[in-house]
Amino acid sequence: MIVEFLSQPWPWYTSGAVIALVMVLLLFFGKSFGFSSNLRVICAACGAGKHVKFFDFDWRSQLWNLLFLLGAIIGGLISSEFLAGDDAVQISQATIQDLSVLGISAPDDLQPEEIFSLDALFTVRGFLILLIGGFMIGFGSRYAGGCTSGHAISGLSNLQLPSLIAVIGFFIGGLITTWVLLPLIF
Amino acid sequence: MKGLKYILAGILFGIVMSKSEAISWFRIQEMFRFQSFHMYGIIGTAVILGTLVTYIIKKYKLRDYQGNPIVFTPKEKSVPRYLIGGTIFGLGWALTGACPGPLFVNIGHGYWAFLVAVGGALAGTYFYGLIREKLPH
């Protein structure tokens, strides 16, 4: 019964509350919620500190964040293996219409086949979308000193003006991709 | 095991991101097209509750589980760093429909294509470290 209940898509207010809870848990563990730092920690753990000063720090002190990352992967696995509903993402009709103009069909899963299936990945366009998209995420979040968790959740909760500026940047970039780049790519 | 609590917190995060569909490219598109309240509701609820708890922690000088004061480090003041860096991040966020957390949650979900995006994100982070002295901060 409980699994059936949890398998439904969760409403936004439950999700917002649980994300705030995760942030608070980490604060009471004596840490702070910021996911993108992990990318720097992984670079450091792979030995990037030998060549680049930015990665020359005691990454082992950040092991807790890598464990959090590991948990996030397990959380995704649990959701898909044990809590998966059979329903497609219920996005608005307007979005479905807009995306169909780009040649992306209505959701029958969490992610569009046209971008995330292995067939799409093994095309030049599909591969570059993910590689370049990822590159900008990594470069931009480190340049801005944080991502959605560090700035939009932790930073805004602490009423940090820099985080507000970063979040405005997130939206400028997101709107450019959505309205200018995607129509060029698809 | 001291690390277990971080894994459990991560699991909770992974499940909530999946079950709220916040890891879905479709939901991010819907957000950037202003065609649904869903993502704004998630971020808004988290920020309102987060602000409340942060305020309480500061007001009552609450301590963490080891008895140390909980400290919030103010972010350095700057505009170009947050605006330019943030914009570049946003370009990638809308393209892959995922921020750093969901990149990994999606891999747990079995969307292997995200491994390429993670590879890109690590390369981007490394490249930032390489040229950071030359960038306006």
TrEMBL record, chain B:
UniProt keyword list: Membrane, Transmembrane, Transmembrane helix
Transmembrane segments: 38-57, 82-105, 111-131
Pfam families found in the cross-reference section: Sulf_transp
Protein name per its UniProtKB record: Transporter
Species of the source: Pontibacter korlensis
